[in-house]
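Exercise 4. Each item below gives a protein and its sequence. For each, produce the structure-token representation.

Item: GNAT family N-acetyltransferase (Pseudomonas monsensis).
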Amino acid sequence: MEAPICIRPATLADTGIISRIIERSIRIGCALDHRNNPRQVDAWVRQQPAGHLCTWLADARFYLNLALLQDKPVGVGMALASGDITLCYVQPECFRRGVGRALMDDLQGWLRLRGVQRVSLNSTRTGEAFYRHLGYRQAAPPLTHEGLQTLPMVRSFPACA
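Answer:
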């Protein structure tokens, strides 16, 4: 039986591991998107949040979570109080083990507690099937930035009574 996945809010002490999880997920797990093009990989990694993590962790409008499997950090996600999910990265060796779903369930729960009824995100081709499985649908034509194609997606939640 698989060990349970623990999700907790990220802290300042987690900034190094968060950066490593994101970079490994991009370099290894998203090859379908960047096709191992070194310039594209480097551009994608450079635009990630390492320099902004401390600011985001101190701002109540941002929520970063960390997934742990057997007490080892294996995934990270981030949502904005506006209803946008901006990060969901999982260590490649932990793909298809429920880590991404656990991160997304936690992010969506945080957003729903804030009254958000419509959640949006931009998916890579690598993540598209995963997000569709979670109930997201395409919201607009694909976007391209620095050679990376993303698909705007949304999911709505019923209003709480």
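Check: The domain at 5-116 is CATH 3.40.630.30 (Aminopeptidase).
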